[in-house]
Amino acid sequence: MTKPAPIFIHFSLHITFILFLNHANSQLDYNINGTVPLFICNLKNLTTFGVHNTSFHSTEFLRALYNCSKLKILDLSQNYFYGAIPNDIHRMSRLRDLNLGVIESFLPEIGNLSNLEELGLAYNSKIVPPLPSEFGKLKKLKFLWMVGTNLIREIPNTIGEMAVLEHLDLSENSLTGKILGKLPEILAWSLTRLEMNNNMFLGKIPWRVSSSKILLVLMASNNLFNGTIPRDFSRLTILLVDRNQVSGSLPSDINS
User: Which CATH superfamily is domain 5-202 in?
Assistant: First the structure.
């Protein structure tokens, strides 16, 4: 007999609330029917809510969380949503960390979550680009995780407006062209980790990337970069440029 799948709701007072879902079918899909119990929002210290490995036939349950005045972390990764995320999700104004599962489109209203520091939208093969310009309002965002989100053409200028971004992961998309736009401005001020594996970037690695004084990690495997490996990369702690058309030797004091 298959055990029911748990939903964990974590509280700042080190209490874990668990809801068990019944086994739905032989494909090990689990469904939430109904809504999140309203009493959850009466828990004054609720700061983290996480649900994993579930198919949601309705996203209306999210609205039950709007009254959780201290909610800062919402982790819905590894889920599948049938239908759109509520367009008033920006009412969760205190959120600092939002990680969504499989959704059908970018939601411009996420740009109104002004306190967000981490945003995860990875592995969303159904998302239709482009990235909404509203995302440029995320001025406190430090980590943007967009692996496998159907991004195409050049890196969106919107990302360059995220003034304090430290970790950017754009791997496994169809980004191409040279690294242009406003990305170099981020490199100069805040970016310490840049991941762009498995795209179609081409040309030489720009000097504005290699000369960054704060960039520590560059992962750019399996692209179309050419030219020589810049000497300025000696300050990096991790450098991955395999499966490109670059030449030259790697600095001896970095991990590769």
Answer: Ribonuclease Inhibitor (3.80.10.10)
